[in-house]
């Protein structure tokens, strides 16, 4: 039995979230999205993190501006 039945690779996560693979990798590197379960697998947890980022972007936050995003979500978890 698979421990994570909803696992997906980064391309599938990109398609499901509407973010590019490049953006997802950036968010992982900056700590805005959790690292994958293994080198290849992501779950709905990661997808939900990206949904929160998408909502924040829609309200005007620019996560490409380093530091501001990390303070906003990384150091101060929020519920959007």
- Give the number of domains: 1
Number of helices: 4
Low-confidence stretches: 66-72, 74-80
Tell me about the largest β-sheet: none
How many strand segments?
0
SSE string:
HHHH
Walk me through the structure.
- Helix content is 49%, strand content 0%.
- With 80 residues, the protein is an all-alpha fold.
- It has helices spanning 10-17, 21-29, 44-58, 68-74.
- The N and C termini lie far apart (34 Å).
- The protein has one domain (10-74).
Describe the structure concisely for a colleague.
The chain is mainly alpha-helical and 80 residues long.
Can you lay out the helices and strands and say which pair or pack?
Blueprint: H1 10-17, H2 21-29, H3 44-58, H4 68-74
Main traits of this protein?
4 helices, 0% strand, single chain, mainly alpha, disordered C terminus, 80 residues
């Amino acid at each position: 039995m698979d421990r994570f039945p909803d696992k997906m690779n980064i391309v599938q996560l990109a398609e499901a979230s509407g973010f590019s693979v490049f953006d997802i990798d950036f968010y992982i590197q900056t700590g805005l999205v959790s690292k994958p379960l293994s080198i290849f697998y992501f779950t709905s947890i990661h997808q939900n993190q990206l949904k929160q980022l998408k909502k924040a972007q829609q309200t005007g936050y620019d996560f490409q501006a380093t530091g501001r995003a990390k303070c906003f979500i990384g150091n101060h978890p929020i519920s959007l």
